[in-house]
Amino acid sequence: MANALEVAHPEEPTGVQRATAGPERLGLFLKDVRQEMRKVVTPTRAEVQSTTTVVIVTVFLFAAYFEIVDLVLGTGIDKIFSSLIKQ
Predict the structure, then answer these.
(1) Contact 18, 26 (CB under 8 A)
(2) How far is residue 63's CA from residue 69's CA, in Å, rounded to a whole number?
(3) Does residue 9 sit in helix, strand or coil?
(4) Taken in order 37, 39, 44, 49, is the CA torsion positive or negative?
C-alpha cells in the first residue's frame, strides 16, 4: 500500500532536478517540433491562387454588404433626426 501511495502522489522535484531536466525537456520539445514540421504540406500554386481569389471576392462582397447597411442605417437616422428637429 505504501508503494501505491508513492505512485499516486510522487514527490515534487527539487530545484536541482528541475534545472537539470530543462535541457532534456527542450530536446524533447525540439524533437516533437521536427516531427510535426515533417507533416506540413506546402500548397501548390493553383491552390494558393484559388484561395486568394476566394478571399478577394469575399472581401468585396462584405464591403458591399456593409456599405448597403451603412447607407440604410445612415438614411434612417438622418430621417429620425430631421423629423425631431422640425417639431
Answers:
(1) no
(2) 10
(3) coil
(4) negative
Instruction: Go through the chain and tell me how many residues it has.
Output: 87
Q: Is the dihedral of CA 34, 39, 40, 44 positive or negative?
A: positive
Three-state DSSP class for 61?
helix
In the predicted structure, residue 13 carries a pLDDT above the cut 80: no
Residues 19-57: pLDDT tens digits?
777 888 899 999 999 999 999 999 999 999 999 999 999
Helix, strand, coil fractions of the chain, as percent rounded to 5: 85, 0, 15
Cα(first)–Cα(last) distance of the chain, in Å? 88
Reported as a single tens digit per residue, the pLDDT across 51-66 is: 999 999 999 999 999 9
> Long-range contacts: 70-74, Cβ < 8 Å, 24+?
none
User: Looking up cell 433626426, which residue turns up?
Assistant: 81
Cell of 12: 515534487
